[in-house]
Amino acid sequence: MSERTDREAGSDFMPKFDDKGLLTAVVVDHATQAVLMVGFMDAEALAATRETGLAHFHSRSRGKLWQKGETSGHVLRVERIFVDCDQDALVLSCTPAGPTCHTGAPSCFYRELVGDVLQPVKT
């Protein structure tokens, strides 16, 4: 089998990081499946997440590892990790310990584009 076939059809976890060493991680609420946030993981963040059960990401702005909620206490407990077909993106199904967004909103996706205007998402 080729590496592509192994990655797409095999059972081995073979994360495919981009040229910056990152892969996309979409976080959804384990109970509701609502999208909470999108982050980026490097090998270190992925390993820390798997080891601790708490979501870790690579901060592109700070250039370092960070645990979601490390200062606020609003951690994301990882319940399941889903891997896409070519293993370059993950969905983390998480139980949040408070608001996910740094603004205090439950989700970073609290606005909807309606025409050319951002409107608050109605829950």
Automatic annotation (TrEMBL):
Q: In which pathway does it act?
A: Amino-acid biosynthesis; L-histidine biosynthesis; L-histidine from 5-phospho-alpha-D-ribose 1-diphosphate: step 2/9; Amino-acid biosynthesis; L-histidine biosynthesis; L-histidine from 5-phospho-alpha-D-ribose 1-diphosphate: step 3/9
Q: Where is the Phosphoribosyl-AMP cyclohydrolase domain?
A: 37-110
Q: What is its EC number?
A: 3.5.4.19, 3.6.1.31
Protein origin, superkingdom? Bacteria
Give the matching Pfam families: PRA-CH
- Kindly report, in one word, the top-level EC class recorded for this enzyme: hydrolase
Signal peptide (from-to): none
A GO BP entry is: L-histidine biosynthetic process
State whether keyword Ligase applies: no
Q: Which keywords annotate this record? A: Amino-acid biosynthesis, Cytoplasm, Histidine biosynthesis, Hydrolase
List GO molecular-function terms, semicolon-separated.
phosphoribosyl-AMP cyclohydrolase activity; phosphoribosyl-ATP diphosphatase activity
Cross-referenced PANTHER family, in alphabetical order? HISTIDINE BIOSYNTHESIS BIFUNCTIONAL PROTEIN, HISTIDINE BIOSYNTHESIS BIFUNCTIONAL PROTEIN HISIE
Give the record's family classification.
Answer: In the C-terminal section; belongs to the PRA-PH family.
- Protein name (record): Histidine biosynthesis bifunctional protein HisIE
- Name its species: Qipengyuania citrea
